[in-house]
Write a structure and sequence with these properties.
Layout (H helix, E strand, L loop, with lengths): L2 H39 L19 H19 L6 H20 L5 H35 L2
Helix pairs in contact: 1-2, 2-3, 3-4
């Protein structure tokens, strides 16, 4: 592909990402507002069981991370139209796996939750490290083959 086609393709992909991000803003604010209203209406001051912060993750983060996973998958599918470079697709897939691991950590408690979060972060960091190493090696190969 020539440079002009690549730039046009990248600009098109970025514009699609901006559309998705713009659509996410009102969605996430709406989810937060709905969750807050639902949470405040669920208070029962007559109840002897007043522990509203017992499962704070159940309020918003479950749905938030579910939306993030769906958006990540949509972005991965959109990126398939713009690149056939496997290391870019593997990087994006790795980030989806990290997000899924974080989402799974909300469903468990105790040390397992912490372990899942740490594994998600380490997995994401290792994916980006491997991707950056591959990019560096790829650029060295391209520079070596130039006349």
């Amino acid at each position: 592909m020539d440079q002009e086609k690549i730039e046009k393709s990248v600009k098109s992909f970025i514009s699609k990402k901006k559309i998705i991000a713009t659509a996410l803003i009102p969605l996430l604010f709406g989810m937060a507002l709905y969750t807050f209203i639902d949470w405040t209406l669920s208070f029962s001051f007559n109840s002897s069981d007043l522990n509203p912060f017992e499962s704070i993750n159940d309020l918003f983060f479950d749905e938030f991370f579910s939306v993030l996973i769906i958006v990540d998958v949509v972005l991965l599918l959109v990126s398939l139209f713009y690149t056939d470079q496997f290391h870019k697709i593997i990087r994006n897939s790795g980030f989806i796996i990290s997000t899924i691991l974080i989402r799974m950590s909300f469903g468990v408690s105790g040390a397992i939750s912490t372990i899942l979060i740490v594994v998600a972060v380490l997995f994401g960091l290792s994916i980006i490290f491997i991707h950056n190493k591959y990019e560096k090696d790829l650029s060295n190969i391209d520079n070596d083959t130039m006349p």
